[in-house]
């Protein structure tokens, strides 16, 4: 196991694929030291982590269990190649495995995350890991990993705060810490009255707050085509909706604001398992942009494509909805039924 952890730690520092020199990657709005990933890249990282978990615990397809199986070795090699940008997928994978009360994959994933925390100089990465690893986890046997991990995060944050760094970096860290102490109303005011880094940090902190005002503010910025932070707000809005319950996310798919429905479609496709029925319903939305987002999300979640094409007339959209629902009805287990089956980690 020690050799396994060392190999994982070394591999974590290697990128999955070298970024193009001609196309600079945007920083992630939640963790600036990581790249902003596309939906497809996020899905690929989730697939790699899920495959590793399934290889470790076995699944309904009777994959061999154990570290000496061929499937485990292949899954382990794929996990080694993920690189730092697999950070969010590792956290999601840990939370899923922990809720299923499997200790082996959670141990490997938590150790891999610990190595990344120790190597990172980004306080936002450390804070995100501290606040999101083990969310909703109640089982005592898994809380030991979470508690130990959070202690490590606290030590790392203290070390980052005491390191000798340029004054600008120290000020940025203090500003980020200040935002965590503000109320939702104060954060909303900061978004409206501030510019630059302070406004970005206020938006990032709002994403973490479970409050209607936070959702409304993120949606307003995401909908404003003239707002410089629009792209960042749209991504933050998706992450915010992913924190909702199944019922909350389904409700957001029916929200009166188009930007919320667009973000809900993206979130529904990333949900584990994907929420397919609400996405199909969005194909009949009055807003063409929402319909396109729902179609894209369906294809991403299911690897199927029954249409409709962009700008298709209402008759063809109705036909596509019938085809999607006919396909969904033939699936052996969907949505909540899949959630009840801990061995089923891949969406379809």
Number of helical stretches of at least 4 residues: 18
What does the radius of gyration come to? 21 Å
The structural class is mainly alpha
Taken from the alpha-carbon principal axes, the silhouette is: globular
Chain-averaged pLDDT: 79
> In this structure, how is the largest beta sheet organized?
none
Helicity level:
55-70%
SSE layout:
Layout lengths: L1 H11 L26 H19 L12 H11 L6 H13 L3 H17 L3 H10 L7 H23 L4 H14 L3 H10 L2 H12 L4 H12 L6 H13 L3 H7 L5 H13 L5 H7 L5 H15 L11 H16 L6 H4 L9
Q: Key features?
A:
globular; 18 helices; Leucine-rich Repeat Variant; disordered C terminus; disordered N terminus; mainly alpha; 3 domains
Describe the structure.
The structure is a single chain. This protein folds into three domains: 2-16 and 24-163, no CATH class; 180-243, no CATH class; 246-338, Leucine-rich Repeat Variant (Alpha Horseshoe), CATH 1.25.10. The model is unreliable at 1-6, 8-22, 60-67 and 334-348 (pLDDT under 50). It contains 18 helices and no strands. The radius of gyration is 21 Å and the shape is globular. By secondary structure, the protein is mainly alpha-helical. The two termini are 32 Å apart. It is 65% helix and 0% strand. It has helices at residues 2-12, 39-57, 70-80, 87-99, 103-119, 123-132, 140-162, 167-180, 184-193, 196-207, 212-223, 230-242, 246-252, 258-270, 276-282, 288-302, 314-329, 336-339. α5 runs parallel beside α7 (140-162), α10 packs parallel to α12 (230-242) and α11 (212-223) packs antiparallel against α12 (230-242). The longest helix has 23 residues, at 140-162.
């Amino acid at each position: 196991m020690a050799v396994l952890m060392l190999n994982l730690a070394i591999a974590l520092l290697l990128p999955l694929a070298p970024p193009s020199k001609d196309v600079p990657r945007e920083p992630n709005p939640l963790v600036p030291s990581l790249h902003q990933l596309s939906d497809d890249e996020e899905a690929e990282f989730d697939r790699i982590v899920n495959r590793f978990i399934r290889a470790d615990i076995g699944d309904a397809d009777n994959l061999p269990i154990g570290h000496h199986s061929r499937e485990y070795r292949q899954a382990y090699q794929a996990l080694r190649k993920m690189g730092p940008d697999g950070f969010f997928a590792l956290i999601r994978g840990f939370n899923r495995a922990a809720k299923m009360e499997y200790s082996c994959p959670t141990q490997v994933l938590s150790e891999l995350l610990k190595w990344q925390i120790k190597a990172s100089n980004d306080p936002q990465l450390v804070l995100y890991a501290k606040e999101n690893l083990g969310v909703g986890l109640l089982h005592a046997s898994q809380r030991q990993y979470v508690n130990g991990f959070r202690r490590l995060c606290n030590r790392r944050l203290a070390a980052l705060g005491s390191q000798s760094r340029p004054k600008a970096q120290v000020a940025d860290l203090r500003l980020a810490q200040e935002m965590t102490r503000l109320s939702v109303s104060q954060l909303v005011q900061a978004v409206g009255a501030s510019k630059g880094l302070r406004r970005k940090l206020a938006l990032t902190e709002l994403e973490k707050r479970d409050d209607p005002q936070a959702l409304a503010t993120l949606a307003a910025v995401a909908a404003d085509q003239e707002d410089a932070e629009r792209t960042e707000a749209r991504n933050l809005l998706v992450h915010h909706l992913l924190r909702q319950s199944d019922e909350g996310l389904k409700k957001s798919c029916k929200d009166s604001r188009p930007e919320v429905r667009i973000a809900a479609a993206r979130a529904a496709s990333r949900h584990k398992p994907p929420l397919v029925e609400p996405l199909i319903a969005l194909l009949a939305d009055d807003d063409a942009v929402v319909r396109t987002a729902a179609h894209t999300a369906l294809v991403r979640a299911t690897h199927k494509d029954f249409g409709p094409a962009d700008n298709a007339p209402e008759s063809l959209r109705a036909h596509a909805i019938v085809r999607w629902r006919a396909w969904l009805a033939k699936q052996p287990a969907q949505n909540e039924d899949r959630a009840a089956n801990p061995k089923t980690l891949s969406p379809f």
